[in-house]
Design a protein that fits this description.
74% helix; 10 helices; mainly alpha
Length: 250
């Protein structure tokens, strides 16, 4: 329902369509400019103000609109975090370009494959930005925000599959993410700029998404299922065994 309304709002072609693309492309540009001016707060406000249409309906529709736009908000704020943590204008510009690609090429997609990709990107970027910028905050806050990110990603993923147990599965994935964050945040490890929690949740999440997608499209065989599960377990085992756990408790 929400997507149908948005599709009616967006112009399909001609000058109006070109003008719409120009307006969308301006957001990453303005975010980049304000980051360069050390005005990240204004950049946050721009990203949030870009979602004003969520509240241009009756209040009873607000929760559904927030859920429908959660991944886009998470991705936008994540790119902002990456820009503020970049050491040079060149890297900040790269993040701005990637944000523009998200807005113009990935976000508008409505196929099952693109919706799945949106959910995966939203979760990966959201968790990366969370631990990169707020890794030293309380475990309770980290767990709560990780729950919100993974819950939103799961809800977004299941929207294109008409899954009857969407709410239950989204809550369960969010709970698992919060529990894993609660445990591993006491030994918060990083591999470069990526936290161990982000890596593990991404591996497990991508594996489960792949299994679900292949199953729902009748392409999941016993051999493929075993291969995916084996790869998931192998990566998790390597991460856990070869991590430096000494003197990391906080």
């Amino acid at each position: 329902m929400v997507k149908q309304v948005l599709n009616k709002i967006k112009p399909a072609g001609g000058f109006a369509h070109a003008f719409h693309i120009l307006l969308v492309a301006m957001l990453p540009t303005l975010v980049f400019v304000f980051v360069r001016l050390n005005l990240a707060g204004i950049a946050v406000a721009l990203i949030l103000l870009g979602k004003w249409r969520m509240f241009a309906v009756r209040p009873r529709h607000w929760p559904a609109n927030v859920r429908a736009n959660a991944i886009d908000i998470i991705v936008g704020l994540s790119f902002l975090v990456f820009m503020t943590h970049s050491s040079s204008p060149g890297f900040q510009l790269v993040w701005a370009i990637l944000y523009a690609i998200w807005l113009l090429a990935i976000k508008p997609g409505s196929s099952s494959l693109l919706v799945s990709l949106q959910a995966a990107i939203g979760q990966a970027l959201g968790l990366s930005a969370l631990f990169l910028n707020w890794g030293d905050t309380s475990v309770l806050v980290l767990s709560g925000v990780a729950w919100a990110i993974c819950y939103s990603a799961a809800r977004h993923f299941f929207t294109s599959f008409e899954e009857p147990h969407t709410r239950f599965l989204a809550y369960m994935w969010g709970y698992f993410a919060a529990a894993l964050t609660w445990v591993l945040s006491h030994w918060l490890l990083f591999y470069g700029q990526v936290s161990q929690v982000t890596l593990l949740l991404s591996v497990i999440g991508f594996g489960l998404v792949g299994l679900y997608y292949l199953d729902i499209t009748d392409r999941l065989t016993t051999l493929v299922r075993r291969q995916v599960v084996f790869i998931m377990l192998a990566i998790i085992l390597i991460v856990l065994v070869f991590s430096d756990w000494g003197d990391k408790a906080v």
